[in-house]
């Protein structure tokens, strides 16, 4: 029989997986053609500066954990400039505050909000790019996939971690944004268990080599 800690972690990762696991990844491709030099970025979707996460209902020990939460971007870095290298693995981490005393259902709902907020942000702000390099006889077209697609191709890795308080969470969010990573913290509407405006979960998505610089010392939820 799973203990409470294992149940929370399992519920968190299952919810995030179900929320995001429906799209297929794309592969890098390289084509050589005789043409003129240019750089042609792929079209970028339109998205509001702050993504608002819609309410979702999750049951925890028979209680309804439906809530409204907003995803806060604060001062984003240049997410569009962040490129993944050929050997990069991308992952998403969901950092949960433990000082709020949230139930497993509440944690699952808030992690789902954070996962979706990161997904929408990357979809809008980190487009795929085709870079055309000139050589003596031809041009090389190198396709750099959108980071979101690389994450999907890598198996949509999601890791639930924990931090002690809001101050620690805000420091990590600022560090992530300074590295141009996608970082979204969730502010609860205060309709169920905790005070309105409380930051509950921080989602960070990007190359593992960069994400680990920020969250590498945190413990699993």
TrEMBL record:
It comes from the Eukaryota. Transmembrane segments: none annotated. Coiled coil: none annotated. InterPro entries: Pep_tRNA_hydro_II_dom_sf (IPR023476), PTH2 (IPR002833). One of its GO terms (cellular component) is cytosol. Residues 57-75 have a biased composition (Acidic residues). The keyword Ribonucleoprotein does not apply. GO terms for molecular function: peptidyl-tRNA hydrolase activity. Residues 38-75 are annotated as: Disordered. It catalyses: an N-acyl-L-alpha-aminoacyl-tRNA + H2O = an N-acyl-L-amino acid + a tRNA + H(+). Keywords: Hydrolase. The keyword Hydrolase applies. Its EC number is 3.1.1.29. Belongs to the PTH2 family. PANTHER family: PEPTIDYL-TRNA HYDROLASE 2 (PTHR12649), PEPTIDYL-TRNA HYDROLASE 2, MITOCHONDRIAL (PTHR12649:SF11). This is peptidyl-tRNA hydrolase. It comes from Psilocybe cf. subviscida. The lineage of its organism: Eukaryota, Fungi, Dikarya, Basidiomycota, Agaricomycotina.
């Amino acid at each position: 029989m799973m203990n409470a800690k294992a149940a929370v972690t399992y519920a968190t990762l299952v919810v995030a997986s179900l929320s995001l696991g429906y799209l297929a990844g794309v592969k890098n491709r390289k084509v050589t053609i005789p043409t003129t030099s240019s750089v042609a970025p792929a079209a970028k979707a339109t998205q509001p500066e702050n993504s608002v996460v819609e309410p979702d209902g999750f049951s925890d020990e028979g209680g309804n954990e439906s809530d409204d939460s907003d995803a806060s971007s604060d001062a984003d870095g240049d997410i569009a400039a962040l490129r993944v290298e050929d050997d990069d693995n991308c992952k998403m981490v969901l950092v949960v505050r433990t000082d709020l005393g949230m139930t497993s259902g509440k944690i699952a709902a808030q992690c789902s909000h954070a996962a979706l907020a990161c997904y929408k942000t990357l979809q809008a702000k980190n487009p795929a790019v085709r870079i055309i390099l000139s050589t003596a006889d031809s041009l090389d077209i190198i396709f750099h996939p959108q980071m979101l697609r690389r994450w999907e191709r890598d198996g949509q890795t999601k890791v639930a971690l924990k931090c002690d308080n809001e101050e620690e969470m805000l420091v990590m969010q600022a560090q992530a944004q300074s590295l141009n990573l996608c970082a979204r913290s969730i502010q609860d509407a205060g309709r169920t268990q905790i005070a309105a405006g409380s930051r509950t979960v921080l989602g960070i998505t990007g190359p593992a080599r960069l994400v680990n610089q920020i969250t590498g010392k945190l413990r699993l939820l």
